[in-house]
Amino acid sequence: MKPTLLTILVALILLCSCAHYKPDPWTKNQVVLQGVAVGLKAVDWGQTLDVVDKSDTHYEKNPILGEYPTRAEVNRYFAYSMAGQLLITYLLPSKYRKYWLGLNIAISGYLVNHNYRLGLRVNF
Predict the structure, then answer these.
(1) Model pLDDT for residues 50-62, shown as the tens digit of each residue
(2) For 15-28, what is the HEC assignment?
(3) pTM of the model
């Protein structure tokens, strides 16, 4: 999963066009929700690395990573994913942040629970 030059250019153009935008301040509740979202994503990251180490009995279902990603591919994916999630949360108007964070927590919580039931553990 390598970012292409076009992807990087589009991201830079979008960021430059938002130079006048001042995001809403964060509430304490939003900071807590963001911490939970990042924490769950970190656990999912570690569990996905456990899939890599158990490739003889397990495979990855994330279509972006493919069935048998390398540790480097998993690390890159989750680093970009976490950064992107944080950037979107930061740029969203305050009234939408709780819904966005709630969705992230629900999805990551489901995945972490599913992985745990499969016997996967955090393996950094």
Answers:
(1) 999 999 999 999 9
(2) HHHCCCCCCCCCCH
(3) 0.84
